[in-house]
Design brief:
heterodimer; A: about 250 residues; Purple Acid Phosphatase, chain A, domain 2; six-stranded mixed beta sheet; 8 helices; B: about 475 residues; alpha/beta; Transferase(Phosphotransferase), domain 1; globular; disordered C terminus
């Protein structure tokens, strides 16, 4: 089975559409959504409806910090993010709030753990950006593979049987065998707001039979996504950054 | 975990039936296995983990599993399956043939045989380098020669893939490799330069040609470092029958600085296949090692050297293509000038390029052409002289340029064959003027463009705008 993993969609309809289309074309048969469906982008309602449709058909979805903030959790955020959350609260409907409020923080299935930020204390929204935070995350669970998002920067951390940690910058469309004698933590880059200086949307595919992971970059219609952000009256910086990928 | 001691013929692991135990390697057990639906013989490699958790065994095994499953082609064993955490193993094609190690007893081998074997290994190396992989442990026991003479590389436990995590570098702070064969930059913990494999192949050819190892068999890392400043004795010191061209090739492979070696395995293979075209330098005539002053200055340089910067395999290969200039000596002068101008532009962007100047003499399919023309000159030699004259102004080091004249009834096919056999990356050739006959018969350049295995640049001579009409 091939599972597509999406994270940090952030209300970016154009990016999610492009990724879903790409995943479908490449013969994916299961879907995982790692949180932060709303915030920053202009289409939170459409994104939540789409994700909930996939969840209805068996997809896995976990809660992100922007989702929690949108349904009421007090959040520590920068100005643009806070403004976007305030705006999002006003445009999403009750069914969206109900869906988000019911999402779990963590899902664990067959040796694989799915979480938005870090398995250490999932509701604390810790960032995994370096070997130290990755090692804390990997020793907090027994899972063979941890999938998460939150940083918007694709990277792959791993731990050998001797306890050595290392990181790797995945290359677009190169298949990476996640060997069985090693534990892996895969930070999937963002669909809706990449921050690794590559503006193309990012998602990943796991072949469960062989444990081969492939990161994929998908170009999408940034002009439309950015125009909608401006037209919605959201902070313009949120539109510009899509072009630069930061 | 598989307990290797309890394994017995007839046992089945994940559908693979153990048939016969083979010679064990240092870090693994090997079994010939069979599987329903697999007609060819297979081999199962099971890491020996009995000495507790030996990191090199485990991580090398992981690295091999990762890399072998990504490689394809006739120069690597076909990957079939890998076991899981509980039962680690790799199943791959059992390559029929014999280990290059079995030839060592016969060393020194004749130069032609060394060159032939070296060219086959270089071909195999070029194949994996083009797949983003450097082997980093090239030595006779890791090369199998098939019955047709072609080489297969085995044991990718220390290898590196450009686009995958380097588990070895991340696990070990000290350099890994085989003391006798490891390249100087590997000793400095730099992994991933394809020219490291060229160095190790140089050691292998040195051994085959002389029966001696150029750096001995050092075991401790401190002794490995000696090769950073100490050059080996020239091969002819051990075997006076080593011809200058082979010594030139081997010593160039063994240069301490990767930049001074062949920049790609394809370029090395090219020289091994064309001994007559090897540009001989001071290396060919060397009778002894460098003097103490040179060695001392190298030692000082190493001591003060900054750490090496990683570069990708693909990056090195992109910078060192084989460019082929197909020259029609009978064409008008201005076409020759246009061709030279186009070549200058190509060569300016790739400093490590190798240039092969080729002229094909069209001969009749039926008649045996006379060896001499009407004036008693040998047309082959005459063409070679003209070819060299034409190429003289090109900005290429003499050791990066070769000249070839051959006869064929079908020049386009000969050019395409040459490009394919020599892993040419880029053909530059001229398009001759138009004529009713050419339009009817088709042109050489059009046929080359259609059939070449690589990029082709067809050069036209500049012409005034009123000179209309299609060209060849």
């Amino acid at each position: 089975m091939r599972t597509a993993l999406f994270t940090d969609i952030h209300g970016n309809r154009e990016a999610l559409e492009a990724c879903l289309e790409h995943a479908e074309r490449s013969g994916v048969d299961a879907y995982v959504f790692l949180g932060d469906f709303v915030g920053y982008g202009a289409d939170p309602g459409w994104v939540v409806d789409t994700v909930s449709e996939y969840v209805g058909r068996g997809a896995v979805a976990v809660l992100g910090n922007h989702d929690a903030a949108a349904v009421g959790e007090r959040a520590d955020m920068n100005d643009d993010a806070a403004a976007a959350i305030a705006w999002t609260r006003g445009v999403i409907e009750q069914r969206h709030r109900d869906f988000l409020a019911r999402l779990p923080l963590v899902v664990e299935k067959g040796g694989i753990l799915y979480v938005h930020a870090s398995p250490v204390d999932p509701g604390d929204w810790e960032y995994i950006t370096d070997l130290y935070s990755a090692s804390r995350a990997l020793v907090a669970t027994r899972a063979h593979i941890v999938f998460c998002g939150h940083t918007h920067v694709p990277s792959l951390f791993h731990m050998s049987v001797t306890g050595k940690f290392a990181s790797f910058d995945p290359v677009d469309r190169v298949e990476i065998p996640l060997t069985s004698r090693r534990r892996w933590l895969a930070v999937i880059g963002a669909v809706g707001q990449p921050r690794d200086r590559n503006p193309a949307a990012c998602y990943a595919v796991l072949d469960d039979a062989t444990d081969v992971l492939t990161y994929v970059r998908v170009p999408y219609d940034i002009d439309t996504a950015a125009r909608k952000i401006r037209e919605a009256g959201l902070p313009v910086g949120l539109a510009y950054r899509l072009y630069e990928g930061y | 975990m598989i307990n290797v001691r309890s394994l017995a013929a007839g046992q089945v692991i994940d559908g693979f039936r153990l048939e016969q135990q083979l010679d064990p390697g240092g870090m693994a057990d090997f079994w010939r296995v069979s599987h329903d639906g697999e007609a060819l013989p297979l081999i199962m490699k099971i890491p020996l983990l009995r000495r507790g958790e030996d990191p090199l065994t485990i991580v090398g095994f992981e690295q091999e599993q990762m890399i072998l499953s990504r490689l394809s082609g006739p120069h690597v064993p076909r990957f079939v399956a890998a076991g899981d955490f509980e039962r680690p193993y790799i199943v791959m094609e059992l390559v029929p043939g014999r280990s290059l190690k079995t030839l060592l007893d016969r060393a020194p081998l004749p130069a032609a045989e060394v060159a032939h074997i070296g060219a086959e290994i270089a071909e195999a190396l070029h194949s994996i380098h083009r797949q983003h992989v450097t082997h980093l442990d090239v030595k006779p026991s890791n090369v199998i020669l098939r019955d047709d003479g072609s080489a297969v590389l085995i044991d990718f436990g220390l290898s590196r893939h450009d686009q995958l995590p380097d588990l070895i570098a991340e696990e070990f702070d000290e350099p890994v490799g085989t003391g006798a064969y490891v390249a100087p930059e590997q000793v400095r913990r730099f992994r991933g330069d394809p020219r490291s494999d060229i160095f190790s192949l140089g050691v292998t050819m040195y051994f085959l040609a002389t029966g001696e190892r150029p750096f001995g068999e050092p075991e401790r890392e401190a002794e490995w470092r000696r090769r950073l400043w100490r050059d080996p004795y020239p091969p002819s010191r051990w075997n006076p029958l080593v011809p200058p061209w082979l010594q030139e090739i081997i010593l160039r492979c063994l240069e301490i600085e990767p930049d001074a070696r062949y920049s790609s395995a394809a370029q090395l293979r090219f020289d091994l296949q064309h001994p007559d075209g090897v540009a001989l330098t001071e290396r060919a005539a060397r009778r002894d090692r460098d003097g103490p002053l040179t060695v001392l200055s190298r030692w000082l340089k190493v001591r003060n050297a900054p750490p090496l910067r990683m570069r990708s395999v693909a990056g090195v290969l992109d910078r060192s293509p084989i460019v082929m200039a197909a020259i029609d000596l009978s064409a008008a002068d201005d076409l020759g000038d246009a061709l030279a101008a186009a070549l200058r532009r190509v060569l300016a962007t790739v400093p490590d390029a190798r240039l092969a100047c080729v002229n094909v003499l069209k001969v009749s399919r039926l008649a045996l052409d006379p060896m001499e023309d009407a004036k008693g000159r040998n047309p082959h030699l005459q063409r070679l002289v003209e070819l060299k004259h034409w190429a003289r102004p090109l900005p290429v080091d003499p050791e990066r340029i070769t000249y070839h004249v051959f006869e064929s009834p079908d020049p386009a096919a000969a050019i395409v064959d040459y490009a394919r056999n020599n892993h040419v990356d880029h053909i530059v050739m001229g398009a001759r003027g138009s004529s009713p006959l050419r339009r009817y018969l088709g042109s050489v350049s059009a046929q080359v463009v259609a059939q070449a295995p690589c990029t082709v640049t067809v050069v036209r001579r500049p012409r005034a705008t009123d000179e209309a009409g299609p060209e060849g």
